């Protein structure tokens, strides 16, 4: 195939480093949350987003977009949280087609208990491994990658951080 720009040694090292780091950090955080809080990482992220929202509730479509998941995938995850009494769903009062996911007091308590251990795991796996200037470079670089791959309807100028500052994930 002509025109293929194969990765050189430096580019391959960056790519393989990214793959290994993201896989290992993700597995580490998933294991920590399951062991310490009985939550999956997606469940934790849903609770974080709801806790950060006004009145602790968000439209399901907005929640799916903010969590970078499909609506059907989010419906399943919220259903699991609903069974545990951590989240409840109800109709949107301003749009008959809209459904809101709302954090319950029990969900807020589970999140409050899970957050310190999760933040400690994020620090141990990523934040404290990097020098302060490296943190800035990683944040800028991965921010650009995320921005480039965002659906066009979210706009290139979107300031959504993906929950990194609020959830530490």
Total DSSP E strands? 3
Residue fraction in strands? 5-15%
Q: Please outline the major beta sheet.
A: 3 strands, antiparallel
| Secondary-structure-derived class | mainly alpha
Order of helices and strands: HHEHHEEHHH
> How widely separated are the two ends?
39 Å
The rough form would be described as globular
Task: Report the total helices.
Answer: 7
| Estimated radius of gyration | 18 Å
Spatial arrangement of strands, main beta sheet: 1-3-2
As residue ranges, the low-confidence spans are: 155-169
Output mean pLDDT. 88
Q: How much helicity do the residues have?
A: 55-70%
Describe the fold and architecture.
By secondary structure, the chain is mostly helical. Helices cover 62% and strands 11% of the residues. It has seven helices and three strands; from the N terminus they run H-H-E-H-H-E-E-H-H-H. Strand 2 and strand 3 form a beta hairpin. Helix 1 packs antiparallel against helix 5 (105-125) and helix 3 packs across helix 4 (71-83). The radius of gyration is 18 Å and the shape is globular. Mean pLDDT is 88; it is low at 155-169.
């Amino acid at each position: 195939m002509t025109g293929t720009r194969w990765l050189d040694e430096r580019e391959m090292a960056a790519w393989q480093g990214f793959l290994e780091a993201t896989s290992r950090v993700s597995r580490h955080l998933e294991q920590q949350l399951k062991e310490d809080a009985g939550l999956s990482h997606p469940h934790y992220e849903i609770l974080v987003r709801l806790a950060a929202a006004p009145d602790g509730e968000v439209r399901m479509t907005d929640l799916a977009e903010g969590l970078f998941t499909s609506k059907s995938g989010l419906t399943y995850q919220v259903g699991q949280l609903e069974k545990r009494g951590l989240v409840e769903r109800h109709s949107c009062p301003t749009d008959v087609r809209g459904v809101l996911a709302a954090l319950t007091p029990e969900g807020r308590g589970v999140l409050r208990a899970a957050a310190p251990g999760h933040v400690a795991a994020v620090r141990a796996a990523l934040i404290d491994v990097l020098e302060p200037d490296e943190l800035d470079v990683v944040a800028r670089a991965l921010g650009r990658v995320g921005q480039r791959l965002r659906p066009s309807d979210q706009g290139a100028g979107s300031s959504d951080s993906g929950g990194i500052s609020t959830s530490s994930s």
